[in-house]
Amino acid sequence: MAETLRIALAQTNTTVGDFKGNCRKIIEYINKAKNTGAEIVLFPELTIPSYFPEDLLLKKRFVQDNLKYLDGLAAKVRDIIAIVGFVDLDEKTGNTHNAAAILNQGKIAAVYHKICLPNYSVFDEKRYFVPGDRPMVFDCNGSKIGLNICEDIWVPDGVTECQAFAGDAEVILSLSASPYHKEKRKIRVEIGATRASFTRAIVVYLNLVGGQDGLIFDGNSFIVDHRGELICECAQFIEDFAVADLDLAAVRQFRKEDATYHYDKKAYKSLYQPELVSLSPHVRKKNLPDATATCKVPLSHLEEIYQALVLGTRDYVRKNGFAKVVIGLSGGIDSALTAAIAVEALGRENVIGILMPSDISSEGSVNDSLDLASNLNIETKTIPISQALDIYLTLLKGTFEDRPVDSTEENLQARIRGNILMALSNKFGWLVLTTGNKSETSVGYCTLYGDMAGGFAVIKDVWKTLVYELCNHINSFAQRDVIPRAIITKPPSAELRPDQTDQDSLPPYDLLDAILEQFVEKDKTVKEIIAEGYPREVVKRVARLVDINEYKRRQAPPGIKISRKAFGKDRRMPITNQYQT
Amino acid sequence: MAETLRIALAQTNTTVGDFKGNCRKIIEYINKAKNTGAEIVLFPELTIPSYFPEDLLLKKRFVQDNLKYLDGLAAKVRDIIAIVGFVDLDEKTGNTHNAAAILNQGKIAAVYHKICLPNYSVFDEKRYFVPGDRPMVFDCNGSKIGLNICEDIWVPDGVTECQAFAGDAEVILSLSASPYHKEKRKIRVEIGATRASFTRAIVVYLNLVGGQDGLIFDGNSFIVDHRGELICECAQFIEDFAVADLDLAAVRQFRKEDATYHYDKKAYKSLYQPELVSLSPHVRKKNLPDATATCKVPLSHLEEIYQALVLGTRDYVRKNGFAKVVIGLSGGIDSALTAAIAVEALGRENVIGILMPSDISSEGSVNDSLDLASNLNIETKTIPISQALDIYLTLLKGTFEDRPVDSTEENLQARIRGNILMALSNKFGWLVLTTGNKSETSVGYCTLYGDMAGGFAVIKDVWKTLVYELCNHINSFAQRDVIPRAIITKPPSAELRPDQTDQDSLPPYDLLDAILEQFVEKDKTVKEIIAEGYPREVVKRVARLVDINEYKRRQAPPGIKISRKAFGKDRRMPITNQYQT
Which single residue of A59, A440, B35, B530 has CA 20 to 30 Å from B298? Predict the structure, then answer.
């Protein structure tokens, strides 16, 4: 019975549907792992198709192709155990499973089917998969190892306990694709530590990294030992690779000496028995290089969010085949933050800023944008919109008759700007990044086909108050005013009518954001929020604005989820809805 | 033991979240049913909140409010059994159930929890509900009646058989909210007849009617007797009410004489035992008026689709609080069909047509639109767009430099038109109806923020070939050319560059639609479609166009589902997707 187990963590960034590229990357990491003498190399959930293919899974051939690639991969795996995620197909029933394959000596040695399928928040796994019905433990040189997939480890008194107690697993491997939101890291490590310390097993949690449409997978894979101590933590938001020696002897010793362990084990043993898979014995190498696993220092709260936005932007742009992006620079803080993120994600040479002043625009809006562009060292173009607005007003004069000026004219300006950005996008193949934040997206303080026009909404899930924090963070990190001070200090304004500020139409942002967080992210109702001490009329108005603007959000571009509940498939509200919240 | 059972079918059109209005309507129909002497009145699935509240269900108070309304309703029900759908809450676990309540003598006499929860196609019921674990049969004057909810009756060897065989149910009541698609009627009646003839029970299928965002519930409730014969069929696409006398004596006699019935019953009896609920005996009235149930003649194939589009448009517009709609009339067949549907749905006085000719527009496009408007007797306004286009081209000249003219300039024209329609919408509170069909939505032959700009996409799920059929149908039904002949006969064109026709960019529509049907609705891959004999290069190009235009569809307005698979939550494709179909 081996005293230690050397395991490699391959925290890869794959692309949905890119079987060829994903398998090339898997092979690369397998070879890297072999060079370190690792006995096992672990990949994220659904490695081969990448997470999450959504309705591509309903195309039979997609699933068959993924199986072909798995077979091709298996044939190439020798002298190491590689564990990869894939979609399994039961030919008899036609059922598909979210699965993991243990590849060993040129073959698929065993397959595990995920038992707990998440079907909440952004997840729809029950739409696609049939749950597995049996936990699995495999034997590697006499050590028992439990194999888990993502949600399996989140459910208490479930798969993990069964593997450790009934199946005697000393190590639990979790293949994951766990999307990022603020403070998710802490929650995940706690889950890992809770399962590890209760089962007195080492938990190896391997998470996907990369952006897929609006979801960010932050990597940050980790290992927790049998006492619940974090012994390895991979980088956040980038590909990473770590090799760890797991001290199995220590696990055994600890279990022997721990009286309550035997009590807990007994309580579980009778419930169910996991499948036990034996692998052909594996020859351990001598004179291995040292294991490299360390605990990387986690990013600060703001840096974590910033890196999520950078990765999300980079992966959406690159994985969709774009080279450059174009951003309308209004002189406001939202477009400034968006531009700064884009430069970090794509390089300054791939970001073009467009200034589109009107007669209403303040002098500051142009100068501040030029300062920003100069700080970021990006190209700009200036295209004034007044003439276009005049023409529209002339064309519409007969129809509008003597109706008073209202938000129609404001929206027209925003839409002219949207048209110009889209024309540049069409002509030069640049992707338009929109700049709306979560506060305005919530209450509909934005123009459909105007400032909402574009391919990707970088800060769609970022409250306005957090926009300020992030800008200050960027400046303090850079130790200079990348975002010009004037942009941060001036009162926010859409500049769509003279002397307008956001606070003419909206409550102050700190109050607005606090109410919105309760209403949008925590699903509280007006009455509940008022009961918490927020002003009645403001709460009612804000809730109503959120509800009646669902139609706008339905036509918004996708954006990066950084909160517990983002707009999009995370929050599926009917448009037709007469409920009085 | 009663020989007959008088049942009332209340095929209601309710609105999501409108608890007050929905309950008012329920009371109205209960009273109507009592006047006919019915012993039972049946309502659709989730009657109180209406189907489907989506993430409103995650708001605790929404569920609590629905329970309050149920209690209020129950207190008012006397001298009849009313069966209504609602959301049940288990206070201990916090679990919610898709439920039906049997209301009797001022009380909730019993509650059933739906067992089969659909989580495919447009359905996400497992996101919200925990399945029930016990079929239910209740006793009404000595007759055994099984209560089912929607999906329960679709699953073979399931709830229905258990109720009839193990629970001796003579009647199966199914509360449904089954969305419409082409030819769904036949499928539903067949399911009803199959269950009825196998269990030798009378099946009463009560379906919701009305539009909810993109989904149409077509009503068309029906009764199938124990031999599988259709004995009642309600109207399609409108509220309806029917009263039927169910011949229980005939069911009993039939079962007695049918040897295989006893064999089938025995086979099921041992499996599970449904819950049996006894209701307080109900005094039957004398001298009742005759039952009114008849089999209404089903609509023809084209009339059915047309009525689905009419109902979908009317309910989206009205339930969202709009009075009038505005439509850009291009002189083409798509806007003509959309306008005709809107007039049927809302009345001619609530439809405004806008002509927005450019220098490229043919004379026909204006004249044909005016003819159409005159046939439909709707108001029009003409706003030419050439000056606006000129300004944009001037503004962009410096940036475009000497780049050749391409689709950018075409998109600009479409976006100017979009802006004008939206300006009218903003100024007058009219809802913009978009006019894109499914063929162009599939391949992205449409302009984001241009012709795609608007609140509701009436014919989004209608193939171009079907657009023609529907226009001919409208004309032949009206026995005059409501849609001018010229619009039907001219070659389709976007008229965004001189002498353009759709067939410059796309394969002929009959070929295109046939390929798209395989690829989009049947989830076949390129190889499979080619294997069926379609031209290789065309199939490859069409599939590629569908895949790369997912980003456009993500920002499209909702529209009416009439096919087995519509765009939207029925087809959840990733944008970031490198799969080579």
Answer: B35
What lies within 8 Å, CB to CB, of A397 at 6+ separation is none
Asked if the Cβ–Cβ distance from A420 to B392 is below 8 Å, we say yes
C-alpha to C-alpha distance for B87 and B93, rounded to whole angstroms: 15
Looking at the complex, report in whole angstroms how far the Cα of residue A500 sits from the nearest Cα belonging to chain B: 19
What is the predicted ipTM? Answer: 0.95
Q: How far is B188 from chain A (nearest CA, A)?
A: 22
Cβ proximity of A546 and A445 under 8 Å = no
A63 is written with which tokens? 């699933």
Cα B187 to Cα B192: distance, rounded to the nearest angstrom = 9
Residue A144 near residue A164, CB atoms below 8 Å: no
Beta-carbon contacts of residue A136 (< 8 Å; ≥ 6 apart): A110, A112, A146, A147, A163, A274, A275, A276, A277
Is the pLDDT score of B270 beyond 70?
Answer: no
CATH architecture type of domain B4-278: 4-Layer Sandwich (3.60)
Residue of A nearest to B418 (CA): A449
SS3 state at B78:
coil
Nearest to A39 by CA among A274, A284, A357: A284
Identity of the residue in B315, B388, B527 whose CB atom sits nearest the CB atom of A395 = B388
Task: Count the Cβ atoms, other than its own, within 10 Å of residue A262.
Answer: 12
For residue range B532-566, list pLDDT tens digits in order: 999 999 999 999 999 999 999 999 999 999 999 99
Q: Which residue of B has its CA nearest to A455?
A: B551
Tell me whether residues B423 and A411 touch, CB distance under 8 A.
yes
Residue of B nearest to A321 (CA): B576
Active site residues of B: 45, 114, 150
Nearest to A119 among B52, B126, B211 (CB): B126
pLDDT digits (tens, 9 = 90+) for A380-427: 999 999 999 999 999 999 999 989 999 999 999 999 999 999 999 999
Contact B543, B519 (CB under 8 A): yes
CA–CA dist A423, B405 (Å, integer): 12
Please state the pTM of the whole predicted model: 0.96
Q: Which residue has the higher pLDDT, A156 or A317?
A: A317
Flag if B18 and A213 touch (Cβ within 8 Å): no
Query: Yes or no: is domain A302-506 CATH 3.40.50.1000?
Result: no
**Cα A326 to Cα A434: distance, rounded to the nearest angstrom:** 9
Mean pLDDT to the nearest integer, A322-351: 98
Q: How far is A94 from chain B (nearest CA, A)?
A: 15
Mean pLDDT of chain A: 95
- B131-140, B244-253, B284-293, B546-555: the lowest-pLDDT one: B284-293
- Verify whether residue A528 is a known catalytic residue: no
Burial tier of B533 (Cβ tally within 10 Å: 0-12, 13-18, 19+) = exposed
Interface mutation target, options A576, A580, A581, chain B, most CBs of B under 10 Å: A576
Is there a common fold for A4-278 and A302-506?
no
> CB under 8 Å to B141, separation ≥6 — which residues?
B1, B2, B5, B39, B281, B282, B284
User: Looking at residue B572, what is its pLDDT?
Assistant: 96
Q: Tell me which CATH code domain B301-502 carries.
A: 3.40.50.620
Domain boundaries, chain A: 4-278, 302-506
* pLDDT tens by residue, A258-316: 989 988 888 776 456 788 888 876 766 777 888 888 999 999 999 999 999 999 999 99
Q: Omega of the bond prior to B52 within 30 degrees of 0, cis?
A: yes
Q: Min CA distance, B579 vs chain A (Å)?
A: 4
Q: How many CB atoms lie within 10 A of CB A297?
A: 8
Collapse the DSSP code of B222 into the 3-class scheme (helix H, G, I; strand E, B; otherwise coil) and give the result: strand
**Cβ contacts (< 8 Å) between A392 and chain B: which residues?**
388, 419-420, 423
Q: What is the mean pLDDT of residues A472-490?
A: 96
